[in-house]
Predict the structure.
Amino acid sequence: MADCREALRALEAAAGERRWPDRTAWQRAAREAREVPRRLFAPALESDAAPIHPFRLAHEVARAAGPEAILVADGGETASWLELAADVRGGGRWLSHGYLGCLGTGMPFAIAAKVAYPARPVVCLVGDGSVGLNFAEFDTMVRHRLPIVTVVNNDRQWGMSAHGQDLIYGEGRRVVTELAPTRYDLAAAGFGCHAEHVEEPGALAPALARALAAGRPACVNVLTDPSVISPITIAMVGSPRPAPAPASVEKDRIQVPYYPDLEQE
């Protein structure tokens, strides 16, 4: 048993006395893998088409926040887009729910980060489903004068669940996964936040700059393309498959996205 800090110091000292194998090839492969998302979605970064591609949104958020900012990601596909776009250069500059997917943690995480590091920018990218879980935290930010920028990826759906249903059951078979084009910016303005609404790619960077310069809590509501499926969703669910037969033909069994078919397992 040991204190974490002291254990790491001891391990570092021990590592300096060892001869390690050449990791050049592995390092090159890791650097190349890091660039795959940018190459894959390069056209989205240059496109002026609306609605905005979610990778374009995540890329612009990371770029506007800057290297010293604390980035907070919340949501299913939304968090995965920021994971693909962010270039985190130091410890304590990334907060998210990880693979556990505890939605709604973004705004509370952002508040904690800003209280702990008041001099550093804190930017939270949250899905329009997740933002509803703790939306009243805008009131907390205003009352405590915490200039946090919250960006809502508004694709009018619970993206990961909606796309999972599309991939498993076929399009037109969604259940309770679609949302309205809610003006979250106007709702946040009711708490006293700086508010921005963005529909065009060209308006995204200026809106983020204004929000960061506002000096008070801000909500940037961005309409994004609901048809774009995150690579993480495809990796978890698989490529599109033919629509299944009605449940009554399949032994009255229904497969839920992201949960394994235990009978087949």
